[in-house]
Amino acid sequence: MTAAPDPVPGTPANDAASSSPHPASPTAPSYRERLLPSPGAWIVVVALGSIVGLVIVPLNSTLALIVAIVSIAIAIVLAVQYSPVVAVRDGTFFLGRAQIDVGQLGEPAVLEGEEWKLLIGQDFEPLAYHCVRGWVHAGIRVDVLDEEDPTSAWVVSSRRPQDLVLALRTAQQQA
């Protein structure tokens, strides 16, 4: 008889099968994504940190190595800290520091490929709230229905736009 692996907390399969007397936290996000840089952008981050150390090589190679390592670490931390989080939680759509009640949003639309390129390029909406990352090649657009809000829509990069749209629709139905 083989031993069953220990359940991993936080995974959907194990959370659903869990017989815990405590229900899931009401503030648990129904969708959460951090728009981290792509692998190519990480290479640039490390290269920029290395260049800082390279400048000091003529003075002292040991000091240059230390400065390069510290600079790379700082660059990585900054890249993670400045990557916005897209989340849908408790009837609110969070995008970085911005947030809006899902009841004030229209029907979200998934945009990929040519549609996405047009929306962030030639069909750019100056009154829309944009959170677009060049290394993410898909996203969503959702109209803002509040008449007093000068923002016409939210345009959001997402690596999983279908999941984000599903989370928004679910939150809108529950609201």
Automatic annotation (TrEMBL):
Low complexity biased stretches: 12-30
InterPro entries: DUF3093
UniProt keyword RNA-binding, yes or no: no
Keyword annotations of the record: Membrane, Transmembrane, Transmembrane helix
Sequence intervals crossing the membrane: 40-57, 63-80
Chain intervals with Pro residues compositional bias: 1-10
Pfam families, sorted: DUF3093
Region (Disordered): 1-31
Full protein name: DUF3093 domain-containing protein
Source species: Brachybacterium tyrofermentans
Source lineage: Bacteria, Bacillati, Actinomycetota, Actinomycetes, Micrococcales
